[in-house]
């Protein structure tokens, strides 16, 4: 599905939609380029684009099939970049990934979106409002998109950080919870983020440090800015991974302590019942000669003795922190 | 055992089987090559091939013995590639590996298969249906085989992912299972995959980025496509390895919690029996003066008291989540 | 907010404050430079500086927003360095980070501070007292600041070391404590330090080993001295990370041992009560013919037997170390 | 002790033993070299060799003292290679290491053996039976020895693999064993293998890929074959290391589960005794008015009730899997 | 404090002590150099040396302050090497570190020692007894010192190995010990050794493989010999680190098994008492019609039954390995 298709001349949008059939004209001179946005195109839809712009069949296959790992490739002067978009769904504590596959030529940029992606329409609007930046050509568009996608990783990390904070609170709280499943699922998400974002560092580094076709030197330090933000995000993710490993171990300690405390408490109560039971057993014996049995206050005295024993044990257990 | 042996001319199969004795002719000009497929050849069978094509004795030894790690070697203009094929046997949750040992010369490709391999006959059929691709020579055949083998890794990963999902469900379910053996065996498989697939990344990288004999530049980006898929598979495998480590730890927590719950439950019931037992012991004492014993409703009153005590304890334990 | 702004000529401070409007004059010859210190400037405040000195907009954006990871960038002959300052708050056992963003040109140095930073006023005073060093230009100022910031990491490490020592003492003491939360929180801080300090090693290495604009060779070995100290701090931090992992595991062992000892103790007491209870039960049976019941000293004999049994058990348990 | 010393001319052994005093003659032309084998020589014995062949004193010191890590050094045109031989002692499940220290010059090879080594006499016999290979000079001898030593690592790995298999079977069997000590000792062996074999990879890589004195290019791919085998062994060792870590954790889970099952079983039986004990206590009370006591079939009824209670509990516990 | 100061000419010590004031003369020709040994000099003492020899102020600061990490620096033709000396204190199982800071110029070597160091006086004596070696100049002295310091690491490793052996024996012995604290403290020492020795590998590698001022090529292979020994020590240390991690985990398993055995034993005894208690309770009931009570041998029969029950349980528990 074509989302938008426009031609820009010296940074200004030419009125109306450019049609796919114009793409092949290839007569655009300096400062003119086409920006085509597609959403999950079929192989048929895309083959038209591919033919018009002379895209490499392998990259085109990827654009239609998606499910690629982030990468940057160069096919005869055309850059082909794959990256993941991410969104955090806080209620289920899962990260949803989309995919962008971008072709950048001297006079065109084709952006294929799969799944939930960042708000690319806003990027287009922002760039159209800044003709000077747009006049730098397709690389400026590429930067605009990358900057947005990487900025959109920040709320994902914030959401995960938040939930790790909640999990830590649960682990170290006094209420007997066992968030082991939640910890594990968060770790799973963190590993997913690692797999989706990690491989993008290298492409961004190449964009920001190597001379590449279609990327004017002036744009390079802009890519370095994006690279910075991405590296920060990936480092935070590594920290989270480490924290979740530790919190899993800390949780095991807490859970085991809490349960042993329960067992100890019950055992202490049983022990407190055992002694008076023994005393009662003694005076339940049927010996002929048990002088205490004949005493007038034998019974209350024994009851009192039982109470004293229990109380003494109770205070001892309390002092030991067992009850 | 010879599986198939054919000569191709400008991408078209020449009728009939080529015989081994033709191999040595070496009079093929541009665009002609032989594709020989062998299955677990004996040393005798293979020495004939080796002599006809002038293969290096060390590589030939490997081809007969198999059990090599994946590697790419170059012996005087001949590429020698070793790789593992993989198949997931879901009922036993084990990965079965086969081995391919491939010699690629300017005008021949020899494919030696050991164990269960990918469907190479299909690759041959597909390529024969695409003469243009086949006309690129032996390197195109090599790509066709590699693409298939690496594509066949995907169902292996899917099968393992699936089983990890089942294991996670078991660990976090409420029924008291202990899938520790299954987790461990999956980890063993994941380590096996790591060892079988990991060393192939470097040969594929060299095929996709370095000028190598017998590999025309036009084929190189096709190898990069295969490399991409392989790297994705190996990264997924690393994630699985990490997940299985975490799920083993999470399982320990769950198992220990579940068992402590059982113990606590039994202990709580024992504690509930201990108090009325004590009361009964008290009224079993043989003191002469125990006024309660003479009361008309002493017995039912004590029974009622016991019931109240038990009920109170029961409600307390229930509220604490112990029963 | 402007903290201080002065012009230096051959290492000597020119009287009074330099005004921002002077910055743009750019007529300073050899040995003259301006040192401008800012605290959390607004975008408006900073845009004036940026225009006067021709700073790159991306670096300027960072300077205003902060929350960057440490890095060194070069924009047309201007160095841009980001680094973290650190302070250990011992009562809460947390590390507080500030941020410095520094622009170094041929004739200026701009230092932007965010959050609690090291005592930069002292650095200025020390340098003004040493005109020879100051005469080396902005790079000498950069070194003075870096040296101070990195020296200020030492008390942070000392504080954490200290607290790890306390935690170790708690884990291996005989009093029943469980410092699992404290261990975990220290690990969290250590990971935070890793993230804040680790990325600074590379910029310092480049300052100390590569020819960079605005850094005269004579200053380079001074940066190596700072790099040394930084590497020592980061290695200590890695050791602490490892220690905390081990102490968490050791704590689990200790806690579990301590609790099992409690359980064993209670169980032993219960076992000691069980045997006399059984004896009492035996003599509470109502058989017609139980000769012991008629004995004159049956009752005291049984009591004595009970005492002997309990004492024997007690001595056995004590010898086994269970009580 | 001199094991054997022979001179070879064009691959053929010259009759008899060469004497040490011949070594220094240095008049051998092309295709003649001496192969000297020594077993744990004393410093005196070796100094004679050293002087005759002009070996470097440091290497000579190593040859006498042994206990070196594997390494390859070049002293003025002489290769000096140190490597470990390994043998698995299955009954004690330990790996025994020997050491070979080899000097390779243009016209000599000196092999010093310490401890139990591979069967070098067989290597000599094999090579003497293949004069063509031997005619390649000392490097061919070096290859023959390395090939044998590395091939001898395979049974070591097989033995360890085997024992890991036995340990896994023990961990996951239903009989209550705790092979923690065996797991740990195997891990110790695996770490020992890592230390003994790991450092040899680099020397073999240099032998197989760099031009080195005394190694003709034709021999280089033979060293690559040995390198392949060595890398396979070291990767297998890494896998084993990983497996033993996991099996240790899995064993902890199994042991803890098995013991909790025992505890639960005993507790369940105690609980089953507690309820009829309570009932007996109730009817042991001495109240005047307990109508059941007068019933004709009160006693058998109560006995039956006790049996029913026990049976019900028994079936409940059995259904819960506690007994 | 000056320990010794001597001038050497062609390897021979010139009579008497050289005075500090001679140092600055700088008229020594080929084959003459001064070897100055200092122990924890004050800033004042050292500034004299620094001025006389033209040492760099930063290195001089390090020499006085010490607490540096091992490193090698070159300041205008002067080598500056920092390294740690180590000594194992077996009773406390701690490693004590000292520090050497060495300046090597064309005609001088200055050795500053902090804390307990290796026996440098012996090194001097050995070298003075070997004038040929000493005639190689300051680099030969540097080698002599490094060789001694690194050789002195061996007993440290031996001591730690030993104590790990003792710890293993304790973990796997049948006596109920819990050496968790000792394991942890050994790990702490091993991490300390890692930090003190690890950074020295790179300086030694540079000394043994790069052309450096003041190091004649003939001495380089001697440094490689020292490097070998150092690498062996660091690898052994890594193995120990790994072993201690595993032994900590194995200890947890052993401790938990041993304690559960105790609990199981006590529980089994309690269970053995519970059944006869129940029987006694039954015959303590007050039913009018309990025929057994009237039997002549009811009482001994019940006692016998109790004994049989206990014995049966005892044999069952013994067979299960619970008692
Ligand atoms: Mg951004
Ligand atoms: Mg931005
Ligand atoms: Mg949340
Ligand atoms: Mg949430
Ligand atoms: Mg930025
Ligand atoms: Mg594919
Ligand atoms: Mg494909
Ligand atoms: Mg399945
Ligand atoms: Mg399945
Ligand atoms: Mg693809
Ligand atoms: Mg663990
Ligand atoms: Mg504190
Ligand atoms: Mg400093
Ligand atoms: Mg503190
Ligand atoms: Mg404190
Ligand atoms: Mg310093
Ligand atoms: Mg300093
Ligand atoms: Mg653990
Ligand atoms: Mg071999
Ligand atoms: Mg072989
Ligand atoms: Mg075996
Ligand atoms: Mg065995
Ligand atoms: Mg081979
Ligand atoms: Mg564990
Ligand atoms: Mg437990
Ligand atoms: Mg030495
Ligand atoms: Mg010792
Ligand atoms: Mg000791
Ligand atoms: Mg040596
Ligand atoms: Mg030596
Ligand atoms: Mg662990």
UniProtKB/TrEMBL annotation, chains A, B, C, D, E:
Catalysed reaction equations from the record: Mg(2+)(in) = Mg(2+)(out)
Record InterPro entries: CorA_cytoplasmic_dom, CorA_TM1_TM2, Mg/Co-transport_prot_CorA, MgTranspt_CorA/ZnTranspt_ZntB
Main location per the UniProt record: membrane
Residues annotated as transmembrane: 266-285, 297-317
Membrane topology according to the record: Multi-pass membrane protein
GO MF assignments: cobalt ion binding; cobalt ion transmembrane transporter activity; magnesium ion binding; magnesium ion transmembrane transporter activity
Cell compartment(s), UniProt: Cell membrane; Membrane
Pfam family, one: CorA
Keyword Zinc-finger included in the entry's annotation: no
Known function: Mediates influx of magnesium ions. Alternates between open and closed states. Activated by low cytoplasmic Mg(2+) levels. Inactive when cytoplasmic Mg(2+) levels are high.
Family under the similarity heading: Belongs to the CorA metal ion transporter (MIT) (TC 1.A.35) family.
Name of this chain's protein: Magnesium transport protein CorA
């Amino acid at each position: 599905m074509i989302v938008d298709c426009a031609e820009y001349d010296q940074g200004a949008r030419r009125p109306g939609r450019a049609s796919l059939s114009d793409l092949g004209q290839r007569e655009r001179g300096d400062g003119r380029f086409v920006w085509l946005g597609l959403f999950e195109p079929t192989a048929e839809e895309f083959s038209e684009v591919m033919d018009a712009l002379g895209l490499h069949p392998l990259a085109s296959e990827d654009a239609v099939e998606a499910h690629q790992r982030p990468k940057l490739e160069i096919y005869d002067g055309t850059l082909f970049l794959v990256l993941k978009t991410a969104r955090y769904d806080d209620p289920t504590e899962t990260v949803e990934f989309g995919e962008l596959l971008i072709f950048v030529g001297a006079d065109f940029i084709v952006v294929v979106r799969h799944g939930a992606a960042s708000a690319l329409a806003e990027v287009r609007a922002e760039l159209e409002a800044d003709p000077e930046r747009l006049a730098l050509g397709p690389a400026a568009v590429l930067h605009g998109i990358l900057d947005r996608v990487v900025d959109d990783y920040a709320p994902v990390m914030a959401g995960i950080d938040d939930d790790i904070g909640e999990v830590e609170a649960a682990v170290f709280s006094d209420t007997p919870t066992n968030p082991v499943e939640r910890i594990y699922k968060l770790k799973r998400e963190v590993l997913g983020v690692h797999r989706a974002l990690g491989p993008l560092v290298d492409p961004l580094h190449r964009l920001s440090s190597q001379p590449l076709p279609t990327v004017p030197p002036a744009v390079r330090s802009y890519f370095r800015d994006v690279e910075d933000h991405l590296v920060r995000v990936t480092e935070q993710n590594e920290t989270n991974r480490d924290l979740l490993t530790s919190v899993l171990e800390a949780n095991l300690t807490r859970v085991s302590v809490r349960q042993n405390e329960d067992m100890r408490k019950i055992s202490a109560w049983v022990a407190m019942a055992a002694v008076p039971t023994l005393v009662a057993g003694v005076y339940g014996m049927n010996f002929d000669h048990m002088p205490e049995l004949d005493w007038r206050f034998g019974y209350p005295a024994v009851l009192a003795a039982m109470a004293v024993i229990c109380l003494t044990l109770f205070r001892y257990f309390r002092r030991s922190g067992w009850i």
